[in-house]
Write a structure and sequence with these properties.
By secondary structure, the chain is of the alpha/beta class. About 30% of the residues lie in helices and about 25% in strands. The chain is globular. The protein starts with a helix and ends in a 5-residue tail after the last strand. The protein binds adenosine-5'-diphosphate.
Protein backbone atom coordinates (compact mmCIF):
# COMPACT_ATOMS: atom_id res chain seq x y z
CA UNK A 1 0.00 0.00 0.00
CA UNK A 2 1.37 3.46 -0.87
CA UNK A 3 1.94 5.97 1.91
CA UNK A 4 -0.93 8.12 0.56
CA UNK A 5 -3.27 5.13 0.69
CA UNK A 6 -2.17 4.31 4.24
CA UNK A 7 -2.95 7.86 5.40
CA UNK A 8 -6.35 7.83 3.69
CA UNK A 9 -7.16 4.47 5.25
CA UNK A 10 -6.44 5.95 8.69
CA UNK A 11 -8.53 9.06 8.00
CA UNK A 12 -11.51 6.93 7.02
CA UNK A 13 -12.06 6.35 10.74
CA UNK A 14 -13.30 9.95 11.06
CA UNK A 15 -17.02 10.08 10.41
CA UNK A 16 -18.92 13.35 10.00
CA UNK A 17 -21.74 12.90 12.54
CA UNK A 18 -24.18 14.98 10.52
CA UNK A 19 -23.54 13.59 7.08
CA UNK A 20 -23.17 10.01 8.30
CA UNK A 21 -20.12 9.22 6.18
CA UNK A 22 -16.33 9.30 6.60
CA UNK A 23 -14.33 12.38 5.62
CA UNK A 24 -12.40 10.54 2.87
CA UNK A 25 -15.55 9.29 1.12
CA UNK A 26 -17.10 12.75 1.46
CA UNK A 27 -14.11 14.22 -0.40
CA UNK A 28 -13.07 16.45 2.50
CA UNK A 29 -9.38 15.43 2.40
CA UNK A 30 -7.43 17.61 -0.06
CA UNK A 31 -3.85 17.98 -1.37
CA UNK A 32 -2.39 15.00 0.45
CA UNK A 33 1.42 14.91 0.27
CA UNK A 34 3.67 12.35 1.93
CA UNK A 35 7.48 12.29 1.54
CA UNK A 36 10.22 9.76 2.29
CA UNK A 37 11.32 11.70 5.38
CA UNK A 38 7.97 10.96 7.06
CA UNK A 39 6.31 14.37 6.53
CA UNK A 40 2.58 14.28 5.87
CA UNK A 41 0.60 17.36 4.81
CA UNK A 42 -3.04 17.60 3.82
CA UNK A 43 -6.09 19.80 4.09
CA UNK A 44 -9.51 19.04 5.52
CA UNK A 45 -12.13 21.04 3.70
CA UNK A 46 -15.39 21.25 5.65
CA UNK A 47 -18.81 22.36 4.47
CA UNK A 48 -18.86 25.50 6.61
CA UNK A 49 -16.24 27.55 8.45
CA UNK A 50 -18.58 27.48 11.46
CA UNK A 51 -18.34 23.69 11.79
CA UNK A 52 -18.64 23.00 15.55
CA UNK A 53 -16.55 19.81 15.32
CA UNK A 54 -13.69 21.43 13.35
CA UNK A 55 -11.14 21.12 16.16
CA UNK A 56 -12.21 17.55 17.00
CA UNK A 57 -11.65 16.60 13.35
CA UNK A 58 -8.19 18.16 13.33
CA UNK A 59 -7.15 16.49 16.59
CA UNK A 60 -8.50 13.09 15.52
CA UNK A 61 -6.80 13.31 12.10
CA UNK A 62 -3.47 14.25 13.69
CA UNK A 63 -3.67 11.39 16.19
CA UNK A 64 -4.70 8.77 13.63
CA UNK A 65 -2.02 9.66 11.08
CA UNK A 66 0.69 9.67 13.75
CA UNK A 67 -0.18 6.04 14.49
CA UNK A 68 1.58 5.08 11.22
CA UNK A 69 5.13 4.00 12.19
CA UNK A 70 6.89 6.00 9.45
CA UNK A 71 5.19 9.33 10.19
CA UNK A 72 7.41 12.05 11.71
CA UNK A 73 5.45 15.30 11.12
CA UNK A 74 1.80 16.03 10.38
CA UNK A 75 0.59 19.33 9.00
CA UNK A 76 -3.16 19.84 8.59
CA UNK A 77 -4.82 22.88 7.03
CA UNK A 78 -8.48 23.32 7.96
CA UNK A 79 -10.64 25.16 5.43
CA UNK A 80 -14.25 25.39 4.35
CA UNK A 81 -15.74 25.30 0.92
CA UNK A 82 -19.42 26.06 1.02
CA UNK A 83 -20.85 24.12 -1.87
CA UNK A 84 -24.53 24.97 -1.71
CA UNK A 85 -26.53 26.64 -4.44
CA UNK A 86 -25.87 30.39 -4.44
CA UNK A 87 -28.78 32.58 -3.47
CA UNK A 88 -30.14 34.51 -6.42
CA UNK A 89 -32.89 36.77 -5.10
CA UNK A 90 -31.32 40.18 -5.58
CA UNK A 91 -27.83 41.62 -6.08
CA UNK A 92 -27.07 42.25 -2.40
CA UNK A 93 -27.49 38.58 -1.54
CA UNK A 94 -25.21 37.09 -4.18
CA UNK A 95 -22.39 36.40 -1.72
CA UNK A 96 -24.71 35.06 1.00
CA UNK A 97 -24.46 31.33 1.53
CA UNK A 98 -27.29 30.64 4.00
CA UNK A 99 -30.27 32.61 5.23
CA UNK A 100 -31.67 31.68 8.64
CA UNK A 101 -35.11 33.07 9.53
CA UNK A 102 -35.85 33.55 13.23
CA UNK A 103 -39.58 33.71 13.66
CA UNK A 104 -42.27 33.78 16.35
CA UNK A 105 -46.04 33.94 16.40
CA UNK A 106 -46.23 36.75 18.91
CA UNK A 107 -44.17 39.78 19.83
CA UNK A 108 -42.22 40.01 23.06
CA UNK A 109 -41.19 36.33 23.27
CA UNK A 110 -37.46 37.05 22.77
CA UNK A 111 -37.23 36.53 19.01
CA UNK A 112 -34.91 39.48 18.33
CA UNK A 113 -32.71 38.65 21.32
CA UNK A 114 -32.40 35.10 20.01
CA UNK A 115 -31.71 36.23 16.44
CA UNK A 116 -28.88 38.57 17.44
CA UNK A 117 -27.26 36.11 19.85
CA UNK A 118 -27.62 33.28 17.35
CA UNK A 119 -25.74 35.39 14.79
CA UNK A 120 -22.87 36.21 17.17
CA UNK A 121 -22.65 32.55 18.24
CA UNK A 122 -22.39 31.50 14.59
CA UNK A 123 -19.60 34.06 14.30
CA UNK A 124 -17.87 32.54 17.33
CA UNK A 125 -17.79 29.19 15.50
CA UNK A 126 -15.98 30.91 12.61
CA UNK A 127 -18.82 32.04 10.32
CA UNK A 128 -19.07 35.43 8.61
CA UNK A 129 -22.44 36.77 9.71
CA UNK A 130 -25.02 39.45 9.03
CA UNK A 131 -28.24 40.38 10.83
CA UNK A 132 -31.25 41.79 9.03
CA UNK A 133 -34.05 43.14 11.19
CA UNK A 134 -37.19 42.68 9.09
CA UNK A 135 -39.52 43.97 11.77
CA UNK A 136 -40.78 47.22 10.24
CA UNK A 137 -43.25 48.06 12.99
CA UNK A 138 -40.99 47.37 15.95
CA UNK A 139 -37.35 47.29 14.85
CA UNK A 140 -35.19 46.29 17.80
CA UNK A 141 -31.74 45.78 16.27
CA UNK A 142 -30.76 49.44 16.92
CA UNK A 143 -31.26 48.77 20.67
CA UNK A 144 -29.66 45.32 20.78
CA UNK A 145 -26.32 46.36 19.25
CA UNK A 146 -24.28 49.53 19.58
CA UNK A 147 -22.34 50.27 16.39
CA UNK A 148 -20.08 53.32 16.61
CA UNK A 149 -21.40 54.67 13.31
CA UNK A 150 -25.19 54.52 12.92
CA UNK A 151 -25.27 56.41 9.62
CA UNK A 152 -26.75 54.52 6.65
CA UNK A 153 -24.71 55.25 3.50
CA UNK A 154 -25.49 54.61 -0.12
CA UNK A 155 -22.69 53.19 -2.27
CA UNK A 156 -21.95 54.83 -5.66
CA UNK A 157 -23.67 51.87 -7.40
CA UNK A 158 -26.91 52.56 -5.52
CA UNK A 159 -26.57 49.70 -3.05
CA UNK A 160 -26.81 50.35 0.68
CA UNK A 161 -23.75 49.99 2.86
CA UNK A 162 -24.62 47.92 5.96
CA UNK A 163 -23.64 49.04 9.45
CA UNK A 164 -21.18 46.93 11.43
CA UNK A 165 -20.80 45.85 15.02
CA UNK A 166 -18.14 43.33 16.11
CA UNK A 167 -17.62 42.31 12.47
CA UNK A 168 -21.28 41.45 11.88
CA UNK A 169 -23.04 43.32 9.05
CA UNK A 170 -26.32 44.89 10.15
CA UNK A 171 -29.38 46.43 8.61
CA UNK A 172 -32.68 47.50 10.13
CA UNK A 173 -35.50 49.90 9.33
CA UNK A 174 -34.70 51.41 12.69
CA UNK A 175 -31.35 52.66 11.28
CA UNK A 176 -32.98 53.93 8.09
CA UNK A 177 -35.82 55.83 9.76
CA UNK A 178 -33.47 57.27 12.40
CA UNK A 179 -31.36 58.64 9.54
CA UNK A 180 -34.46 60.21 8.07
CA UNK A 181 -35.29 62.10 11.22
CA UNK A 182 -36.92 59.28 13.19
CA UNK A 183 -40.52 58.19 13.53
CA UNK A 184 -41.94 54.74 12.89
CA UNK A 185 -42.58 53.58 9.34
CA UNK A 186 -46.28 53.85 8.48
CA UNK A 187 -47.06 51.19 5.92
CA UNK A 188 -49.65 48.54 5.14
CA UNK A 189 -49.34 44.83 4.31
CA UNK A 190 -48.33 44.50 0.62
CA UNK A 191 -46.14 47.61 0.81
CA UNK A 192 -44.40 46.25 3.88
CA UNK A 193 -43.26 43.06 2.16
CA UNK A 194 -41.99 45.01 -0.85
CA UNK A 195 -40.09 47.46 1.28
CA UNK A 196 -38.57 44.73 3.45
CA UNK A 197 -37.49 42.80 0.39
CA UNK A 198 -36.03 45.91 -1.19
CA UNK A 199 -33.98 46.85 1.84
CA UNK A 200 -32.79 43.27 2.20
CA UNK A 201 -31.73 42.86 -1.42
CA UNK A 202 -30.21 46.31 -1.99
CA UNK A 203 -28.04 46.07 1.12
CA UNK A 204 -24.55 45.11 0.05
CA UNK A 205 -24.01 42.14 2.40
CA UNK A 206 -20.78 41.01 0.75
CA UNK A 207 -19.66 37.45 1.41
CA UNK A 208 -21.48 35.91 4.37
CA UNK A 209 -21.82 32.36 5.62
CA UNK A 210 -25.01 33.11 7.55
CA UNK A 211 -27.45 35.97 7.25
CA UNK A 212 -29.85 35.83 10.20
CA UNK A 213 -33.22 37.46 9.54
CA UNK A 214 -35.25 38.65 12.50
CA UNK A 215 -38.72 38.04 11.01
CA UNK A 216 -41.72 40.21 11.83
CA UNK A 217 -43.80 38.36 14.48
CA UNK A 218 -46.81 36.35 13.30
CA UNK A 219 -47.75 33.88 10.62
CA UNK A 220 -49.95 36.06 8.43
CA UNK A 221 -49.68 37.29 4.86
CA UNK A 222 -46.60 39.44 5.45
CA UNK A 223 -44.58 36.52 6.80
CA UNK A 224 -45.87 34.10 4.16
CA UNK A 225 -45.00 36.50 1.33
CA UNK A 226 -41.56 37.12 2.78
CA UNK A 227 -40.96 33.37 2.98
CA UNK A 228 -41.84 33.23 -0.72
CA UNK A 229 -39.62 36.15 -1.71
CA UNK A 230 -36.51 35.34 0.33
CA UNK A 231 -34.55 32.15 -0.36
CA UNK A 232 -34.53 30.98 3.26
CA UNK A 233 -32.29 28.00 4.01
CA UNK A 234 -33.78 27.12 7.39
CA UNK A 235 -35.99 28.58 10.10
CA UNK A 236 -35.76 28.77 13.90
CA UNK A 237 -39.00 29.29 15.84
CA UNK A 238 -38.99 31.12 19.16
CA UNK A 239 -41.83 30.66 21.61
CA UNK A 240 -42.64 30.77 25.32
CA UNK A 241 -43.69 27.74 27.41
CA UNK A 242 -47.40 28.45 27.91
CA UNK A 243 -49.76 25.74 26.62
CA UNK A 244 -51.19 28.12 24.04
CA UNK A 245 -47.76 28.77 22.59
CA UNK A 246 -47.58 25.17 21.43
CA UNK A 247 -50.37 25.98 18.99
CA UNK A 248 -48.21 28.89 17.78
CA UNK A 249 -45.26 26.62 17.13
CA UNK A 250 -47.45 24.34 15.04
CA UNK A 251 -48.68 27.37 13.06
CA UNK A 252 -45.08 28.45 12.50
CA UNK A 253 -44.00 25.01 11.33
CA UNK A 254 -46.98 24.87 8.98
CA UNK A 255 -46.25 28.29 7.51
CA UNK A 256 -42.65 27.43 6.67
CA UNK A 257 -43.71 23.98 5.51
CA UNK A 258 -46.06 25.43 2.92
CA UNK A 259 -42.99 26.85 1.22
CA UNK A 260 -40.68 23.94 1.92
CA UNK A 261 -38.49 25.82 4.40
CA UNK A 262 -37.32 23.36 7.07
CA UNK A 263 -37.77 24.37 10.69
CA UNK A 264 -34.52 23.16 12.25
CA UNK A 265 -34.84 24.30 15.87
CA UNK A 266 -37.45 25.47 18.32
CA UNK A 267 -36.45 27.75 21.18
CA UNK A 268 -38.60 27.84 24.29
CA UNK A 269 -37.55 31.18 25.74
CA UNK A 270 -38.17 32.36 29.33
CA UNK A 271 -38.80 28.75 30.03
CA UNK A 272 -38.03 28.76 33.74
CA UNK A 273 -36.49 30.89 36.45
CA UNK A 274 -33.62 29.62 38.57
CA UNK A 275 -33.71 30.96 42.10
CA UNK A 276 -30.40 32.66 42.94
CA UNK A 277 -30.53 31.37 46.54
CA UNK A 278 -31.76 27.76 46.37
CA UNK A 279 -30.88 27.15 42.66
CA UNK A 280 -34.22 25.46 42.17
CA UNK A 281 -35.70 25.74 38.69
CA UNK A 282 -39.20 27.20 38.73
CA UNK A 283 -41.16 26.38 35.58
CA UNK A 284 -43.57 29.26 35.98
CA UNK A 285 -45.62 28.43 32.90
CA UNK A 286 -45.53 24.63 33.01
CA UNK A 287 -43.50 22.08 31.15
CA UNK A 288 -43.98 19.49 28.49
CA UNK A 289 -44.13 21.35 25.18
CA UNK A 290 -40.64 20.22 24.21
CA UNK A 291 -41.52 16.56 24.74
CA UNK A 292 -44.60 17.02 22.60
CA UNK A 293 -42.52 18.55 19.82
CA UNK A 294 -40.26 15.54 19.71
CA UNK A 295 -43.16 13.07 19.90
CA UNK A 296 -45.46 14.75 17.44
CA UNK A 297 -43.12 16.41 14.98
CA UNK A 298 -39.85 14.64 15.49
CA UNK A 299 -38.10 18.01 15.98
CA UNK A 300 -35.00 16.98 17.90
CA UNK A 301 -33.48 20.41 18.34
CA UNK A 302 -35.51 22.20 20.98
CA UNK A 303 -33.87 24.46 23.52
CA UNK A 304 -34.91 25.99 26.81
CA UNK A 305 -33.58 29.42 27.72
CA UNK A 306 -34.41 30.51 31.27
CA UNK A 307 -35.42 33.98 32.35
CA UNK A 308 -32.05 35.60 33.06
CA UNK A 309 -32.07 39.27 34.07
CA UNK A 310 -28.57 39.80 32.56
CA UNK A 311 -29.91 38.91 29.11
CA UNK A 312 -32.35 41.77 29.37
CA UNK A 313 -29.88 44.23 30.96
CA UNK A 314 -27.14 43.56 28.43
CA UNK A 315 -29.61 43.67 25.52
CA UNK A 316 -30.90 47.04 26.66
CA UNK A 317 -27.29 48.28 26.81
CA UNK A 318 -26.62 47.16 23.23
CA UNK A 319 -24.29 44.28 24.14
CA UNK A 320 -25.45 40.83 23.01
CA UNK A 321 -24.68 38.22 25.72
CA UNK A 322 -23.11 35.98 23.08
CA UNK A 323 -20.25 38.52 22.88
CA UNK A 324 -19.74 38.43 26.63
CA UNK A 325 -19.37 34.63 26.78
CA UNK A 326 -19.78 32.49 29.90
CA UNK A 327 -22.64 30.21 30.88
CA UNK A 328 -25.42 32.45 29.58
CA UNK A 329 -23.86 32.55 26.11
CA UNK A 330 -23.77 28.74 26.05
CA UNK A 331 -27.56 28.66 25.61
CA UNK A 332 -27.20 30.50 22.31
CA UNK A 333 -24.12 28.53 21.25
CA UNK A 334 -26.16 25.33 21.53
CA UNK A 335 -28.79 26.78 19.18
CA UNK A 336 -26.08 27.91 16.75
CA UNK A 337 -24.52 24.46 16.78
CA UNK A 338 -27.86 22.87 15.87
CA UNK A 339 -28.32 25.36 13.03
CA UNK A 340 -24.85 24.69 11.59
CA UNK A 341 -25.41 20.92 11.72
CA UNK A 342 -28.90 20.95 10.23
CA UNK A 343 -27.98 23.38 7.45
CA UNK A 344 -25.07 21.13 6.55
CA UNK A 345 -27.42 18.16 6.44
CA UNK A 346 -30.01 19.98 4.35
CA UNK A 347 -27.45 21.18 1.81
CA UNK A 348 -25.23 18.16 1.61
CA UNK A 349 -27.90 15.50 1.59
CA UNK A 350 -27.20 13.74 4.85
CA UNK A 351 -30.88 13.57 5.75
CA UNK A 352 -31.77 9.96 5.16
CA UNK A 353 -35.52 10.47 5.20
CA UNK A 354 -37.69 7.53 4.27
CA UNK A 355 -40.15 8.04 1.40
CA UNK A 356 -43.71 7.34 2.43
CA UNK A 357 -46.56 6.66 0.02
CA UNK A 358 -49.80 4.71 -0.19
CA UNK A 359 -50.48 1.81 -2.52
CA UNK A 360 -54.13 0.77 -2.72
CA UNK A 361 -54.60 -2.88 -1.75
CA UNK A 362 -51.11 -2.98 -0.21
CA UNK A 363 -50.91 -0.35 2.54
CA UNK A 364 -48.57 2.46 3.56
CA UNK A 365 -45.29 1.89 1.74
CA UNK A 366 -42.05 2.97 3.43
CA UNK A 367 -38.90 3.22 1.28
CA UNK A 368 -35.83 3.61 3.47
CA UNK A 369 -32.54 5.20 2.40
CA UNK A 370 -30.85 1.77 2.25
CA UNK A 371 -33.25 0.72 -0.56
CA UNK A 372 -35.51 -1.51 1.59
CA UNK A 373 -39.26 -1.38 1.05
CA UNK A 374 -41.76 -2.24 3.79
CA UNK A 375 -45.49 -2.00 4.15
CA UNK A 376 -47.52 -1.04 7.22
CA UNK A 377 -51.29 -1.69 7.25
CA UNK A 378 -53.03 1.69 6.89
CA UNK A 379 -55.52 0.96 9.71
CA UNK A 380 -52.63 0.09 12.06
CA UNK A 381 -50.93 3.38 11.33
CA UNK A 382 -54.20 5.28 11.82
CA UNK A 383 -54.67 3.57 15.21
CA UNK A 384 -51.25 4.80 16.29
CA UNK A 385 -52.03 8.49 15.73
CA UNK A 386 -50.62 10.53 18.62
CA UNK A 387 -52.53 13.78 18.14
CA UNK A 388 -54.30 15.45 21.08
CA UNK A 389 -57.70 13.97 20.14
CA UNK A 390 -56.33 10.41 19.93
CA UNK A 391 -54.02 10.46 22.98
CA UNK A 392 -54.60 12.23 26.28
CA UNK A 393 -51.69 14.63 26.37
CA UNK A 394 -51.36 14.61 30.14
CA UNK A 395 -51.77 10.91 31.00
CA UNK A 396 -50.48 9.55 27.66
CA UNK A 397 -53.49 7.15 27.54
CA UNK A 398 -55.14 6.39 24.24
CA UNK A 399 -58.50 8.12 23.75
CA UNK A 400 -59.12 6.65 20.33
CA UNK A 401 -60.80 3.23 20.57
CA UNK A 402 -58.67 1.08 18.23
CA UNK A 403 -61.72 -0.99 17.19
CA UNK A 404 -63.46 2.18 16.00
CA UNK A 405 -60.96 2.44 13.13
CA UNK A 406 -62.27 0.58 10.07
CA UNK A 407 -59.86 -1.80 8.34
CA UNK A 408 -60.71 -0.01 5.08
CA UNK A 409 -59.31 3.39 6.23
CA UNK A 410 -56.63 4.85 3.93
CA UNK A 411 -54.50 8.02 3.65
CA UNK A 412 -56.02 10.70 1.43
CA UNK A 413 -52.85 12.79 1.48
CA UNK A 414 -49.32 12.24 2.80
CA UNK A 415 -47.19 15.35 3.14
CA UNK A 416 -43.76 16.02 4.65
CA UNK A 417 -43.93 18.14 7.82
CA UNK A 418 -40.59 19.90 8.06
CA UNK A 419 -37.50 17.76 8.11
CA UNK A 420 -38.56 15.06 10.47
CA UNK A 421 -42.16 14.01 10.04
CA UNK A 422 -45.07 13.37 7.67
CA UNK A 423 -48.66 14.55 8.05
CA UNK A 424 -51.39 12.17 6.94
CA UNK A 425 -55.02 13.13 6.28
CA UNK A 426 -57.23 10.02 6.57
CA UNK A 427 -60.30 8.85 4.66
CA UNK A 428 -62.29 8.67 7.93
CA UNK A 429 -62.16 12.46 8.17
CA UNK A 430 -59.28 12.63 10.68
CA UNK A 431 -57.56 15.66 9.21
CA UNK A 432 -54.00 15.41 10.38
CA UNK A 433 -51.98 12.69 12.03
CA UNK A 434 -48.33 13.59 12.35
CA UNK A 435 -45.78 10.81 12.40
CA UNK A 436 -42.09 11.55 13.00
CA UNK A 437 -39.89 9.51 10.64
CA UNK A 438 -38.26 7.94 13.68
CA UNK A 439 -41.64 6.64 14.85
CA UNK A 440 -42.44 5.25 11.37
CA UNK A 441 -39.09 3.45 11.21
CA UNK A 442 -39.77 1.96 14.64
CA UNK A 443 -43.19 0.77 13.44
CA UNK A 444 -41.58 -0.75 10.34
CA UNK A 445 -39.36 -2.85 12.59
CA UNK A 446 -42.33 -3.84 14.79
CA UNK A 447 -45.23 -4.40 12.39
CA UNK A 448 -43.84 -3.74 8.89
CA UNK A 449 -43.82 -6.41 6.22
CA UNK A 450 -40.99 -6.49 3.66
CA UNK A 451 -42.28 -5.85 0.16
CA UNK A 452 -41.30 -5.23 -3.45
CA UNK A 453 -41.38 -1.61 -4.53
CA UNK A 454 -44.75 -1.02 -6.17
CA UNK A 455 -44.52 -0.46 -9.93
P1 LIG B 1 -39.37 39.93 20.43
O1 LIG B 1 -38.34 40.11 19.38
O2 LIG B 1 -40.00 38.56 20.41
O3 LIG B 1 -40.39 41.02 20.46
P2 LIG B 1 -37.29 40.67 22.31
O4 LIG B 1 -36.13 39.84 21.85
O5 LIG B 1 -37.30 42.11 21.94
O6 LIG B 1 -38.66 39.98 21.87
O7 LIG B 1 -37.39 40.47 23.88
C1 LIG B 1 -38.41 41.11 24.65
C2 LIG B 1 -37.83 41.51 26.00
O8 LIG B 1 -37.51 40.34 26.75
C3 LIG B 1 -36.54 42.29 25.91
O9 LIG B 1 -36.52 43.26 26.89
C4 LIG B 1 -35.45 41.25 26.17
O10 LIG B 1 -34.28 41.82 26.72
C5 LIG B 1 -36.14 40.33 27.16
N1 LIG B 1 -35.69 38.95 27.11
C6 LIG B 1 -35.63 38.12 26.03
N2 LIG B 1 -35.22 36.89 26.40
C7 LIG B 1 -34.99 36.93 27.73
C8 LIG B 1 -34.55 35.96 28.70
N3 LIG B 1 -34.28 34.72 28.35
N4 LIG B 1 -34.42 36.38 29.98
C9 LIG B 1 -34.72 37.64 30.34
N5 LIG B 1 -35.13 38.58 29.48
C10 LIG B 1 -35.28 38.25 28.19
Amino acid sequence: MSRDAEVLEKLKAIVDPDLGNDIVSLGFVKNLKCDDAGNVAFGIELTTPACPVKEQFRAAADKLVRQLPWVKNVSITMSAQARGAPLTAGPGLKGVENIIAVSSCKGGVGKSTTAVNLAYSLQKFGGRVGIFDADVYGPSLPTLVSPADRQVYQNPDGSIHPLEFHDAKLMSFGFVTANQGGGPAIMRGPMVTQVINQLLTTTDWGDLDYLVIDFPPGTGDIQLTLTQLIPITAAVIVTTPQQLSFVDVVKGIQMFDKLKVPVVSVVENMSYFECGKCHEKHHLFGQGARKKLVEQFGIQNSFEIPIIPEISHLSDAGTPVALVGGDIAKHYEAIAESVVREVSRIKFGGLARPKISYASGLGVVVNTADGKVSVIKAAELRRRCRCASCIDEFSGKQILAPESVAESVFPKTIQPMGNYAVAIAWSDGHASSIYPYDAILKLVSEIGVAAQAPA
